[in-house]
Amino acid sequence: MLPAVVKLCCGISYPHLRSTAALQRTAVAVMGQEITHMQRWGQSPQRIRAHAGLNFKEPIPEDTEPALAQKDQQSYVQQGQQAMRKALRMLEDKDGWKVEIKESNGDVICSKVIPGARKVFRLEAVLEASVDELYDLLFARVEEMHKWNSSILHINVLNRVGRDTIITHEVSAERAGNLIGQRDFLSVRHSFKQKSSVYLGGAAIQLESFPPQAGFVRAEDGPTCIIIQALNGDKRKCHFTWLLNMDVKGWLPKSIVNQALPKEQLDFTRNLRRHLTASATQG
């Protein structure tokens, strides 16, 4: 989810991958296809951010936020809950997972192929933070994520449906070496607290009042989730599980996507750890 989240990937440099030079040549060709597609629709990379009067570097003014009817609010709560249930079932199914990456600090990323031949990725890590601190960073203050996560240009909360469900629009940052390129996401995110654990789930949604933005490839995430569990005997440490399930759309080969997404998970976790360390020092 989070995508928080979510979100948008850069170059790969792991030993088990093929040569970086070959990967870069493939990426250049693919990005050329995407740019050509934009130009066919009268867009250029320089014009993307200003499309339809929206400046993607600034929050959307309150008076432009779409209003949700009561039935829509209930529908989005149900969609968020359903996304979380589906994602948890994926995690509970222990069959088919294969180790992709093991880090020296204990972080592990596994993958499995789900129906439709798409890979999903599960990251397991231990973070030095409380459950409430991570909930605050990843859900309550999700709009501030761009301040510490360099892969995100911005996340705007379009609507809050009660305390536990939000509708967000996210744009990934344009970074050197980014093989997937910029994407935007329209998602419903749902949170659930149970004893010493927090569950954050989400999935892509459709809003008539917020159609795909010209010049961007709108990717779709979910069902996806993050599970934050306090470690027994240590309230300042959490077990962090992240199921990344994303359809990046566009014309990218699966090989590029499947190499880039776990790299993004590692980058996100590094950024999060740096932010936690800096906050602890300042505190």
From TrEMBL:
Write out the GO cellular component annotations: mitochondrion
Q: In which pathway does it act?
A: Steroid metabolism; cholesterol metabolism
- GO MF annotation, one: cholesterol binding
Instruction: State its location(s).
Output: Mitochondrion
Keywords (A to Z) from UniProt: Lipid transport, Lipid-binding, Mitochondrion, Steroidogenesis, Transport
Q: Which Gene3D superfamilies match?
A: 3.30.530.20
Q: Domain of life, per the record?
A: Eukaryota
Instruction: List the catalysed reactions.
Output: cholesterol(in) = cholesterol(out)
InterPro entries found in the cross-reference section: StAR, StAR-like, START-like_dom_sf, START_lipid-bd_dom
Domain spans labelled START: 93-281
Q: Which Pfam families match?
A: START (PF01852)
Would you kindly state one Gene Ontology biological process term found in this protein's UniProt entry? steroid biosynthetic process
SUPFAM superfamilies assigned to the protein according to its UniProt record, in alphabetical order: Bet v1-like
Q: How does it assemble?
A: May interact with TSPO.
UniProt-recorded name of the protein: START domain-containing protein 1
